[in-house]
Structure prediction request, 204 residues.
Amino acid sequence: MRHRILVLSMVFLWICSGCASASSTPEAATATPNIMPRLDPSPTPSNSTLPLTCQVTDLKVYINGMDGYCFAYPTRFTLQDQPSDKPDVRGPGYGSSHEPVNATFSVEVTPAAADKTLREQAEIFLKDFSVVDPATFTWSQVQVGGEASWMVEPIPVQLSWRIVFVQHNGYLFRLMYWPVDIPEIKTDLDELTQTTLGSFAFTK
Prediction:
């Protein structure tokens, strides 16, 4: 497990090192390699119909049958008591025991706009989400679940966020990670990002 995380971390850092701030002119996403290798499936035979990356045995797995997706996440992270259609995965708390800071991952799903590109939909969302011009963020093209996607960061709100926008089967998926600006939890957030993006798969 430690070897796998080390390899995934090296791949993630290598790809992110080539990221650059995008211009204000929208661009269509093009197919790019996966941001990281897919996770190894269970070594034992399985009758499951889930994608192989959601059949791992040494990680926890979240399955959303309503919206049609699944992902794996590290065992030391916990799934919070949230509505079943909106997962909230958190790492260990740091800082004040009254207001600890946690590396957090969540997924939001909304209908996609048929008349707009993925980049345009992402920009519209970000203009409402943050007061900062989306053109100043770092935009990186990645693949998630076999779909061309945009990773955008850092997005300042109260804390800074990393959001991955991906469109599939008529829906817009927002994979949301935060906070990216707290040094104490950087390792946790990178591990959470690598594991969930590497395993995220659509089930319908």
